[in-house]
# Entry
Amino acid sequence: MPAERSDYLRGLVLDREARFTLREICRAVDADRDFVQALVAEGVIDPLDDSGDWHFHGEALMRACRAQRLMRDLDINLQGAALVLDLLDELERLRQDVSSMSR
# Structure
């Protein structure tokens, strides 16, 4: 008899234009405020405004989740995760350029 698995799939359906508060980002990423502030300081995500009450767009939430997964799964630090995310963004831009050129 196969062993029971307790794995589960966790997901988030998201509109890229949605706005999230700092508290909502922390809850969605399952991280504390310091982690999100470190993401902002490192340039991984940017708040929509510079007021004390930060709001973020959906893309920031997706980047925060990806950064956290990179740090956890690859055991890299925040600066390494920021670099990987920048490289992935550049790769996507290059793919879009090639795709638009081949049309």
Q: What stands out?
A: Residues 19-101 form a domain with the Multidrug-efflux Transporter Regulator; Chain: A; Domain 2 fold (CATH 1.10.1660.10). The radius of gyration is 16 Å. The chain has one domain: 19-101. Helices lie at 22-29, 33-42, 58-74, 78-101.
